[in-house]
Amino acid sequence: MQEQHVYEYAVIRVLPRVEREEFINVGVIVFCKRLKFIGMRFHVNEARLNVFPTEWELEQIQDNLKAFEEICYGNSKESPIAKEEIAERFRWLTAVRSSCIQTSRPHPGLTSNPELTLDRLFKDLVL
C-alpha cells in the first residue's frame, strides 16, 4: 500500500449574482504540504452559467479563473502572491471573499497521489 498524505482541497465557485448566494462549481484546488503539491483545474459550463441572470461575460470569468490559476502555479508576473510559497498561495486563494469567484472552505483528505486526487475531485464536483 502506498503511503498516504494529508491534503486539502477547495471547490472554486462562480457566483453570477453575489447577493443571491447562488453558485456554480467551476473548479478545484488541491494542496498537499508534505508533497509540496498545489494544483488546480477549472471549466465553466456556459449552459449552466446562462441559467442564472448575471452581469458577467463568460470571457471575464475565464480571464479571472486564468489569473487564479497563474497564482496557484506561481506563474503570474503581475501578482506578488504568486511568488509566495505554495501554502501561502493556497491560503490566499481559499480566503473568504465577496466577489464573483469564491472558494468553499478547505476540506481535508488522505492521498498517495495528489494529481490523481485533483482529477477525481474535478470530475466529481465540477464536470
Topology record:
Layout: E1 5-14, E2 24-32, E3 37-42, H1 46-49, H2 58-73, H3 86-93, E4 101-103, E5 107-111, H4 114-125
Antiparallel strand pairs: 1-2, 1-4, 1-5, 2-3
Helix pairs in contact: 2-3
List keywords for this structure.
alpha+beta, 31% helix, 127 residues
The chain-level structural class is alpha+beta
For the CA atoms, what is the radius of gyration?
Answer: 15 Å
Order of helices and strands: EEEHHHEEH
Span between N and C termini?
A: 29 Å
Please report which band the strand proportion falls in: under 5%, 5-15%, 15-25%, 25-35%, 35-45% or over 45%: 25-35%
Percent of residues in helices comes to 25-40%
Which spans have pLDDT < 50 for at least 5 consecutive residues? Answer: none
What's the average pLDDT? 93
Number of strands: 5
- Mind summarizing the main beta sheet? 5 strands, antiparallel
Count up the helices.
4
Number of domains as seen in the coordinates: 1
Shape: globular
Task: Give a concise summary.
The protein is of the alpha+beta class and 127 residues long. Helices cover 31% and strands 26% of the residues. It has one domain (5-125).
Descriptive notes:
With 127 residues, the protein is α+β, with helices and mostly antiparallel strands. The protein is built from four helices and five strands. The radius of gyration is 15 Å and the shape is globular. 25% of the residues are buried. The model has no long low-confidence stretch (mean pLDDT 93).
